[in-house]
Task: structure prediction
Amino acid sequence: MNAIHNCHRCVSRRDCIKTLSLSALGATMIGPTVHAMAKAPSQTVPGDHIDACMLRPRPDVRVAAAFFELPRPYWLGWPGTTYDLDKHENEYRALLAKSSKELGIQTDLAAKPIPTIEGVTQWIAKLKAEKPHGVLVILQEIHCWPWAEKVAKETGIPLIVFAPVGTAFTGHVKRACQVPGLYALSTLDWSAVEEGLRMFRAKRQFEETRLLWIRKNESNETVLDRLGTKVRAIPRDTFNLAFDKQTATAEVRDVASDMRRHSRKIVEPKPDDAVNSARCYVTAKRLLAEHKANALSMDCLGMVSAKLVPTPPCFAWTMLQDQGVTAGCEADLFGAMSLMLSSYLLDRPGYMNDPVPETAHNNLIVSHCTSGTKLAGFNKPAAPYILRNHSESALGVSTQVLWPLNETVTLMRFSNTNELIIDTGKVVVNVDTPPAGGCRTSVELKMDNIEDCRDVLGFHQVVTLGNHRRALQGFCTLYGIKYIHSPEHSTFADRANT
Amino acid sequence: MNLITLLICLPVTVVAIEFSSPGFPPSRMEADGKLVEDWGAAGVRLAGKGVPEPGPLRVEAAKLDQLIPAARASAQRGPVALTLTAYRSPIWPSGVDVLVVRVEETRGQPVAVTVGLDLPAKTRIGNRTVTLGKRTIVTCPAPQTGEVPVRDWGCCNDANMLPKWGKPTVPCDPAFRNIRAGLGGEHIRYQFPAPKKNKAKFVLGFCESHWAEAGARPLLCRVEGAPQQTVDPVAKWGRHKPGALQFDAADENRDGKLDISVRAGPGARDRNPILNVIWIFPASTTLKPADVIAGKLNATATHYVDVGGANDQSLFPTEKVEYQVRLPAKGVRELTFCVACTGNSAPSPTTSAWTPETLYRAALDVWRGQVTAR
Result:
């Protein structure tokens, strides 16, 4: 297997890593295996090269935090006298500093725990004035829950309440979860808090993103509800005209060479196909940079159908996705937003799919001609892939990414910005085409908690490696997005019984 | 007389001010301060003790934050300075006009004023929504500061009335022929007075007459104080078949009201909820669903609402959009409205998260992007 990139010629990769280290992206984006990432061949004119990693938004993220406790010393009541308040406070202060640094978050932690309602009221006034992007409250006493709820209600700022075990009963958490914008964590596991901080960062990345919507003949710009992402519509011809002007530069040739070299196998594509696909990749980067955009979604099928380009952009999109730049198919706006959610919140690419019920085995086949390869995360080794052509047109280069068997995956799809479909399943088999028809990356999933595979909700759901159900639910909770799951019990049984 | 001289001699007239956002057709504010859209015009009224009859307005073009094109109308009405600012917020998919009405007391004495919107005839006025036909033309992105009178009971009226939509194929109460539908995903919401002992038995009646297959329009029904119920009318009763759900309601928040809502259920492909009938009975009543559905118990119900039909009513008695605003000395109040622009509806306050702040920020972000891109 040669999927891991060890190209020592890739000089600028170090520059890219350095840049990312200094950015708000955090360590998770820094990886040694990014294909074609920031390829800047020596022949390229200085300034001509665009680092894809620099297209990812790097917003400022300001979080205010405080410990809530009652006046010491404690006597009876939870967390109890044996709970070492100073020790825990110091431990969580250190962890918060570390997580904030890694995530590129600017955290303003109150110097001392707040022990009175008056102190809470003062802190609320400060929050209202300073308007941080998120608030974190760490509880040191079980009776402080109403204060936390007061913060959420009076500021309207998304709030994470971290209640180390010993500071919450079920009732506290249940009641708090009724408060809009409050995400309660009752655990000793700090990674859950870090995941929450990642939600604040993801939201800011959504807000700072401009998505190029390449379709039809429209030129305008709008902003999406709730997520705040800017959508700039540009005419579809913009892309193919730019593609026509994109010559086979040294960067293009290097990208084409790498895509072939790193593949496990090449089935249909010829070297010229790889060059054209690399031209797509460079064209996309240029358009994104020209519009100061960070993501795109294009009417690719329409362009192929009209024979405007010699190749669909499938492999180019794979490369962008692996570098944290959302590239969506078929100008499906909410498909692209779902890809973006995987990228920003989970730090890994996914792929949007056409869902096919496999009724003999009651499974779901998720199928498309592009998929990221950095399935486990941007800083993790890539999954192996086979170079294929785009199956519907027999043109260009697309990937059959081989997903790891028996691993859990998450399916997510924004129905709109107010609703997210979330499901999970397990990879059963990578489906080959042929014998199957459909798209090149085809993965058969055994779905969790869905009695009948025909009931799986959505189209172009984004498939992402790992079980992220709770993280996604948490994000939805913080930002007022309703989340739903496919029906657990068969709706076909209902029909049969009608 | 040359052309320049001629122009100088002409009387000064205020022309309409146009404003838009990149890539979309403009709206305009006329010389009288009215906002003109493809569905009609929206004007602002101001009345109150010491506030004189409408007089001339100064209308001018403005650039908010030196970036966002806007139209601004201003006038001094007795003790109150009135300013109307209209700009386009470029919300997806095609924007909405934002009208900000600002009233300021300028003479150092508290004053009570009525701020109203003049809208075309045949508009239907809800809590935070005004519709014209099936189009939502005005919404309030945040609860307004003024007081609005309400009836004893009624629909919060964000849902459309569709008489004769239902086509029940079995004998049943005639109310099953009419519905309200929450077009665009609006929730259907009603409010009733709570009985003395705070408890009551609610029955909601449904008849799905569009979808033939189950799973298309499941509904999530909430009645205050009762466990919520999800129902897929086709799966449970079949197409064109009336059915009913019972709820033991209680005034949980002790506000003297019982609230109900029907919204799209989990996984609904059709996000428009429907509701045909509401019955309310004393809490102790034992009901046979078949008798309720047949309309045999209408007379014993404390409330019987033919939803979308003859005895249905809005919670709001007025056919005007009006707010009573009390201004302290030198006090200022702002009321913000989303106004539908060409070919579009205003965003629903129940399903969208837009606020006056985020609407403005959207405009600022897009216009900043126009300056910095390229």
Q: What stands out?
A: The longest strand of chain A covers residues 419-430. The CA atoms of residues 38 and 51 of chain A lie 4 Å apart. The mean pLDDT of chain A is 90.
